[in-house]
Amino acid sequence: MIDAGLPLVQALDILSTQVENKSLAKTLAVIKSDVESGATYADALGKHPKSFSELYVNMVAAGEAGGILDTILNRLAAYIEKAMKLAKQVKSALVYPITISIVAIVIVAVIMIFVVPVFTEMFETLGGSLPLPTKIVVTISNFLKGYGGLFLLGLIVGFSIFLNRFKKTKKGQYIVDSILLKIPIFGVLLQKVAISKFTRTMGTLTSSGVPILDGLEITAKTSGNKVIEKAIMEVRTAVTEGKTLAEPLMKAKVFPPMVTHMIAVGESTGAIDNMMTKIADFYDDEVDSTVANLTAMMEPLLMVFLGTTVGFIIIAMYMPIFKMITLID
């Protein structure tokens, strides 16, 4: 609408009446009222941090100062769309293995708690000694259907509550994020996502005229990972001391050499924003490839796990029956 020449207040009025989300509609109406009262668009947006992030507000402020608000808003739209796409890719990579794992656990639990005891009662009437695999399955079944199952459930719930509260502390969040980055396969995926997000955000801010120190602070806060956030803030401190951006990034040991070398080239040529965008595009493709490989690898592994577990239980339960048939013959 701004591209078409509509005044900002009129554009906000149109958006507030046509947007489907009622909460956002009310927020836009308040922003429109603030702008009409003489506030800048950035200041009006800054009053609603739940709807508009610090990144968004700072870019709009730079756009207003430079008289290129329409260009900045288009960049923001492109950035948000790419960020949402990246988030969906990561979720899709995690949803499948988690879902299959939960289904596998439920199936095994149902078999152990409800099916195995039926066979156990039958074995007790037959007498004699049971094969070792059958004894293992029966012991686990007795544990799960008794107080052991409640103890295990309580342990899982208790650990989940502890982990949730631990993550809410600064130190806890840092430790959890550090562990996540070191997990095989998943850690690599999370690192690539973090690099893509950092370079995309920093490139967008730099190209929009936001000062590099402000850009680094905003990027750190929106990184979503405390390890990455700490590394970026250390880079910011080094830049305030007169160092280049690439030099402290190399020392942080969070970003791969390719990233730091490309940023160094961007600084030397004066095209740091374009170089950041190219790195982000590259790592977006890397995330696509990693997600596809992860899904392809996890599917057969989970199926083998489920098949092996259920197969072991079934064989263990039928071994005494086969033994009984052999004795009858």
- For the record, the CATH class of the largest domain is Mainly Alpha
DSSP strand tally: 0
Major β-sheet annotation: none
| Mean pLDDT reading | 84
Task: State the end-to-end distance.
Answer: 87 Å
Class based on secondary structure composition and strand pairing: mainly alpha
CATH architecture of the largest domain: Up-down Bundle
Number of domains: 2
Give the SSE string.
Answer: HHHHHHHHHHHHHH
- The share of residues in helices is over 70%
Number of helices: 14
Instruction: Say what the CATH topology of the largest domain is.
Output: Receptor-associated Protein
List keywords for this structure.
mainly alpha; Receptor-associated Protein; elongated; 329 residues; single chain
Summarize the structure.
By secondary structure, the protein is mainly α.
Structural write-up:
- By secondary structure, the chain is mainly α.
- It has 2 domains: 8-79, Receptor-associated Protein; 80-329, Receptor-associated Protein, CATH 1.20.81.30.
- The protein has 14 helices and no strands.
- The chain has helices at residues 8-18, 22-36, 41-46, 54-66, 69-126, 132-145, 147-167, 170-182, 186-207, 212-221, 226-240, 246-252, 257-269, 272-328.
- Helix 5 (69-126) runs parallel beside helix 14 (272-328) and helix 9 packs antiparallel against helix 14 (272-328).
- The chain is elongated, with a radius of gyration of 28 Å.
- The termini are far apart.
